[in-house]
């Protein structure tokens, strides 16, 4: 039986998707959007699809295996779990893939759930730093020169927020690096805090801390940290290439760093917990192009629709294939993460 809290999350997620989609389509000429999609260059869309399906999952798996230092996971299980996670995020509300992915890896690879989950949390932190860094690079040299009014104010706010967020993320990564180098320091600092909790909870939190320290062992020396940074840079540059190829399909020719700006808006749209980022992704990416680069509204909307499909449909189908092959279901993987933590 589905719990009331899950029903509430589902309702809120679907409600947000409907609201954002209404915001996205309210001023569109559907015939013009359809014509823009119909005349998009298929060759560039094939390139974009290949970059997303063939390029990014293996790079994600390569990096994830590195962050799972101390846990041996096969490349097949890593890639399958990533695809299943995308399928879950596309088809289930509230970004369920972030939980489903480590559960899937835990089951397929017979690995403990907690380090798999914490490695995904560390991944998200590194991804945040990566996207902020790309936006800062863009803002320093390729920002629109002729912005006025609300767009200029919003861009200035976005740039300030990126600098603040980037600084905060760097501090966090620095603290984690110190803890990786000095795990005994992390234990000493956490001991007084853990004593504030009941023994059972304190023991469980101590176990989580140990798993976290194992997870950030990938940052323990400069070589490991540099490799993870290189993997992350490669991953996000491939994703930006996918965006660039999709732009070219609509005859939108911009310098490559402009994709860093579009990526920033896409990430903000995907942060809204709707299934597959529906609504949020579309509204954010279309606004980035129409609001800041004077792309016609209908062309920007066509790009958003096609870009979202290119990014999510192939990997979702692949994830569903892995689900069938493994005899799993999204419902079982999303509803039983606690069992994997034992």
Structure description:
By secondary structure, the protein is mainly α. Helices cover 80% and strands 0% of the residues. The longest helix is centred in the middle third of the chain and has 33 residues, at 149-181. Mean pLDDT is 86; it is low at 338-342.
Question: SSE layout and pairings?
Answer:
Elements: H1 4-25, H2 30-38, H3 42-67, H4 75-91, H5 97-109, H6 113-141, H7 149-181, H8 183-194, H9 199-215, H10 222-249, H11 258-270, H12 280-293, H13 297-326, H14 330-335, H15 337-340
Features:
mainly alpha; 342 residues; disordered C terminus
Pattern of helices and strands: HHHHHHHHHHHHHHH
| Biggest sheet overview | none
* Quaternary class: single chain
Overall domain count? 1
Helix content: over 70%
Give the DSSP E fraction (strand runs of 2 or more residues): under 5%
Quickly give the structural class. Answer: mainly alpha
Please count the beta strands (DSSP E, at least 2 residues each): 0
Cα distance, first to last residue?
23 Å
Number of helices: 15
Our Rg estimate from Cα atoms comes to 21 Å
The average pLDDT is 86
Uncertain regions spanning at least 5 consecutive residues: 338-342
Q: What is the 3D form? A: globular
Produce a short descriptive summary:
This protein is mainly alpha-helical.
